[in-house]
Amino acid sequence: MKHLLGVKELDTATIKSILKEAFYFKKQVEKKDPKLSTLLKNDVVANVFFEPSTRTRVSFEIAAKKLGASVINVLAESSSIVKGETIFDTLLNLEAMGVDLFILRHNQSGMPHYLSKYLKTPVINAGDGSHEHPTQALLDLMTIVEYKKNLKNLKVVIVGDILHSRVARSNIFCLSKFVSQVTLCSLPTLIPKGFSELDVSISYNLQESVKDADIIMVLRLQKERHEQNDIPSIKEYIKYCQLNEKLKFPKDALIMHPGPVNRNVEMSDGLYHSSQSVVLSQVRNGLPMRMALISRFLNKDHKKIKTKKLTAYDG
Amino acid sequence: MTGRKMVTLIKNLKIFNPGHKIFEGSIVLKEGKIADIIKNKSQKWDDSHFEKVIDGKGLHCFPGFIDLHSHLREPGFEECETIESGSKSAAAGGFTTVCCMPNTNPVNDHPRVTHLIQEKIQNHAVIKVFPIGAISEGLEGKKLAHIGLCIEEGIVAISDDGRCVTSTAFMQKALAYSRQFEIPVVVHAEDPELVYDAGIHTGRRASLLGLKGSPALAEEVIVSRDIILAERSRAKLHIAHVSSWQALKHIERAKDRGVSVTCEVCPHHLVLTEKAADDFNTLAKVAPPLRTEKHQIALRKALKDGVIDAIATDHAPWAEKYKDLPFQEAACGIAGFETAFALSYSLVLKKVISLDQLISKLTVEPARIFGFKKPEIKKAQSADLTLVNLSQKYQIDSQQFLSKSRNTPFHGMKVQGKIKYTFCRGALVYGDI
């Protein structure tokens, strides 16, 4: 793997081994393995974020630091044609200074794909526009594997602003390799054109789609959506798309959210804090997942990591 | 130019005028005109009577191709193309007449700009180049350009190409005004309010790339609107680079009821689909975008059935700095002159259209749309000729382009049908020797 730009490019076997490695790192972190912090002693990881982010950036930063790498953060305003050239120059300069791995986030779809063509240094996509957010999808899968014994028969519902969600796309690419059914539930204006041709179900009725769901993945609503007439108001969005206690869904269904949550918008506060919510497990798993991925690119002994079998995929 | 005075003999040709039979013969060029056409075996010729003799053995000779739609970028974007380089590129593609769009800098919306372009054409173009004037000042769709005065300076049509006229009221006035001159109004049909990401087709593939794209609907809405307006005003409407089956339906129905509407298709829309833009390939970013197979099949059928009148290149050269960018920042367009024939000829090889249809959509039909003299290989006609080896196979190499720009998604593609010589006004303006 030269870069990690998207889940789309990953085959099932690769995803499985990434997951096993993530569980390995999770265990080592819990054991407080002293060797971890020496693995990437001489490496420099650059978090280059052209879009505001706390969670993802910090998660990558802690992951890299737990492996002993030094981390620099480059935070910048997003681009225009002129600044697009500046981004490129910035990265070339950082590369010349000896950065070993780029973690890149940008508000334009395809930006890491463009930049990585010209970089010798590996790039991990930490989110590009509405396109992909591969590490989120992988940590989501890891979380599902932790809670559900058998992936094959799972019904997953992704609820919310699918149109603008890179989390949704990466999860569609990822989950459709493992689970039996993926349903996208939203309002008609928030479903991307042509998605009905994919191997997913599309629903405009939240109650219908969650009634037998095993996983309910709730997406963040970007608040300016009503200004673009995708929806009339947040109030109306809440009426048709909010996951709350009034809906009937299985008691063992997992409720997930990539964060940050708009409290009482896409999800009621009660459900957010309920025992079915695994939102904090997702955040927790982000760390070993990102350690595993950073290690893949930088750790010379990565291939020697001994991982255990995971039975969840095959039932 | 010495070529105009020279007497040239091109012998052993397969001469073809659209609508007629191919015959073997030789052509004598003198003072820019076709001085004689001699059917083979009718007479023996002594080569020494001619200053220049070209053996056209194995070559077809067609009337010089005409392109209604190109961007020569001068004035304003000379790093991408100039009238000189663009006309040489066109000649290499077999074109002897091209029309250039007004979206230059300054925009060709004023007689002074037209005059300047005409001067450049006089001094630098190796083939016939006709400017197209703007519909609106600055292509802003608000105030009519100096259409009449630009016509005095030689524009042959009006268009805001690259931009779409958004206002229905403004378009209605522009079409009505055009009737004063019976000049074609060329429309880039893509409602900008429906275009979220230019240059990529709205649908599954774009959606998976996280792009909203430009839907077929954006074309259909404007095509149907402008047909209604043209029907009322009885103006001459020409739809540029039609790309969707829905737009074709509207055009077909309008033609059936006698509306004066014509349309053109670009080779890239006939040959490629949206797949070419996967992986954010900016070389396949073009407006209107490459669409799905369903649209492509409809375009091919419409070309065969005559709903589509002409093939035009929409030659849109861009220097690397405009294309080697993240997808959303890259410019739309394909440098099309030098690949147009071979790409279109692939449809003849696939038996989608006949050779007669292909050549007429590159010659007689575009001439009819813009009211040019009928191109014909005939005694006393301007010697505009394109000589092609229809059986030669080769690989497209953008590094060999005579255009200043290399932006093509066709680099490396294996094709058949090579332009060997292009004559314009009797002068050899391109030779693949």
In short:
Chain A has 315 residues and is of the alpha/beta class. Chain A has helices spanning 12-30, 55-66, 81-96, 111-116, 134-147, 166-175, 206-210, 234-241, 269-272, 279-298, and strands at residues 44-49, 70-75, 101-106, 123-128, 155-159, 181-185, 201-203, 215-218, 254-256.
Please tell me the CATH architecture of the largest domain in chain B by its name: Alpha-Beta Barrel
* N-to-C series of helices and strands of chain B: EEEEEEHEHEHEHEHHEHEHHEHHHHEEE
Within the largest sheet of chain A, what's the order of strands?
Answer: 7-6-5-8-9
Mean of pLDDT of chain A: 93
Bin the helical content of chain B: 25-40%
Query: What oligomeric state best describes the polypeptide chains here?
Result: heterodimer
Task: Catalogue the unreliable spans of chain A.
Answer: 78-83
Can you describe this structure?
The complex is a heterodimer of chains A (315) and B (433). Chain A is an alpha/beta fold and 315 residues long. Chain A folds into 2 domains: 12-132 and 283-304, Aspartate/ornithine carbamoyltransferase (Rossmann fold); 134-281, Rossmann fold (3-Layer(aba) Sandwich), CATH 3.40.50. Chain A is 36% helix and 14% strand. Chain A has helices at 12-30, 55-66, 81-96, 111-116, 134-147, 166-175, 206-210, 234-241, 269-272, 279-298, and strands at 44-49, 70-75, 101-106, 123-128, 155-159, 181-185, 201-203, 215-218, 254-256. A 5-stranded parallel sheet of chain A has the order 7-6-5-8-9. In chain A, strands 2-1-3-4 form a 4-stranded parallel sheet. Chain A is globular. Chain B is of the alpha/beta class. Chain B has 2 domains: 6-61 and 380-431, Urease, subunit C, domain 1, CATH 2.30.40; 64-370, Metal-dependent hydrolases (TIM Barrel). Chain B contains 13 helices and 16 strands. Chain B has helices at residues 83-92, 111-124, 147-152, 168-178, 204-208, 216-233, 245-256, 267-271, 293-305, 320-323, 337-349, 355-362, 364-370, and strands at residues 7-15, 23-30, 33-39, 52-55, 60-63, 65-70, 95-100, 128-131, 158-159, 185-187, 237-239, 261-265, 310-311, 385-395, 414-424, 427-431. In chain B, strands 1, 2, 3, 4, 5, 14, 15 and 16 form an 8-stranded mixed sheet that branches. The longest helix of chain B is centred in the middle third of the chain and has 18 residues, at 216-233. Chain B starts with 6 loop residues before the first strand and ends with a strand. The mean pLDDT of chain B is 96. Classes of the chains: A alpha/beta (315), B alpha/beta (433). The A-B interface holds A 8, 79-81, 84, 108-111, 113-115, 128-132, 163, 166, 169, 192-195, 197-198 and B 202-213, 215, 279-280, 325-329.
